[in-house]
């Protein structure tokens, strides 16, 4: 009888203990694996902290608790590279997989990629292709202001991920702000002042470098520009003529082209054009303030990948004959 009573008491105690344990045990912080549901839009806004993002994910039902995502993100250095923008990611998902999807660039919505050297006209075409209204973009460009007085040169080449509801004005403003940050990082204002230049002139030189050269030759082309101006020579850059003509993609210009009446025509005008002829990247901007040392006043791309620099006019024309032969042989695979 005593044994039976002891057994009943023991079973009862275990039952009560189990109930107490499971009722006091903290809930799982993460959703179970393989329980994800449909994809949803999730937006990371500029200036949001890691905990802000984690709480927003939990509120949207993408992760079970904000702590689960925060812990995963804090342990993964890649989370520091998360950029603002809207992504399509799965809801009701394990936090580790949510982070992987947030880091996947293919999930970005409204991605706008602006290549280095793109003109305003190119930027508009790219953005219209991503769903922006052309008239609204034109109005945003018209309304935009920069400290140096030119929007051309201020739409920084980069990859942007705009929210679905982003306005044309906010998108253009973000590009200009990105340019300002790049200029600050490169200390352009201070370096320009030391060189006796304005920020607008630096951006103008950078745009010429970007249009005329491949990256390995940026600093040499920069030096040619400075040397020709110092010698009182006109720059005579074909890219400025094409900009005046609102054309792109041609290697050669004609005598008729060279006669175009425009302040951007550096065959007819002395010094720099009045502003940038495109939107240069950081390396071209840096080259504009860090020209290589050399006496060069001529350069020519004899064939793709072979750009030569000289201070000799005779040597330049010998190379030009070589270029003409290569061009006639079809070495340059672009329009005439």
From TrEMBL:
PANTHER family associated with the record: ENDOLYTIC MUREIN TRANSGLYCOSYLASE (PTHR30518)
Keywords tagged on the record: Cell membrane, Cell wall biogenesis/degradation, Lyase, Membrane, Transmembrane, Transmembrane helix
Keyword Membrane in annotation: yes
Membrane found in the keyword field: yes
Protein name, entry field: Unannotated protein
InterPro entries: MLTG-like (IPR003770)
Organism: freshwater metagenome
Family annotation (Pfam families): YceG
Annotated NCBIfam families: endolytic transglycosylase MltG
A single MF term (Gene Ontology): lyase activity
GO biological process entries: cell wall organization
